[in-house]
Write a structure and sequence with these properties.
With 217 residues, the chain is α/β, with parallel strands linked by helices. 24% of the residues lie in helices and 20% in strands. The chain has six helices and seven strands; from the N terminus they run ααββαββαβααββ.
Amino acid sequence: MSTAFPPGFFARDDESADGRFYAAPRLVTHIDDDAIAAVGELYDELGVSGSADRPTRVLDLMSSWVSHLRTPPAELVVLGMNPAELDANAQATERVVQDLNRDPALPFPDASFDAALCCVSVDYLVRPVEVLAETARVLRPEGVLVLTFSNRLFPTKAVHGWLAADEDGRCAIAAEYVRQAGGFAEPEVSLRTPPGPGRGGRYRGDPLYAVVARRLV
């Protein structure tokens, strides 16, 4: 795809303040159990949780009351919009309330995290390249960025370019965000749930896609 996003790509049907939309806590999961399991399995494969001899500090961007980590890392910093949801995240060791669409600058020092996660939320970013450039800044060399997403979303808050794309196109969009951010090796794109439609031409469950990239040394 082109390295330039067309006019209107990052517009949304609902351009009102995101703080108003996310003011009420939503203590629910936004993907089904199989997709959640796929997220946790991917985090395990990538060593996001770390181990006793290699503790990790993880940043969960646009987080909620659950981070889908099977084993919590030594430190988990959750950054999101709703204080009640973040307070309910039992794995979190630090909580930051921030609207990345208003301010993409992350309030952390350079090279201070081993991994950065963003689960089922990248479609809502209106300044994704700036956010991911900041993410590259706060990741340590060879730290991992993990973007996961499905086909379920709040359509009024997702950007128009994302809504207009099919699922392959959305994978390409997320990978292009990473490339344009800079500081990362070439992103790897994968489908983490079983492919193919089920009855009625629909997926057997929620598809779970991943875009993974390592911070350059």
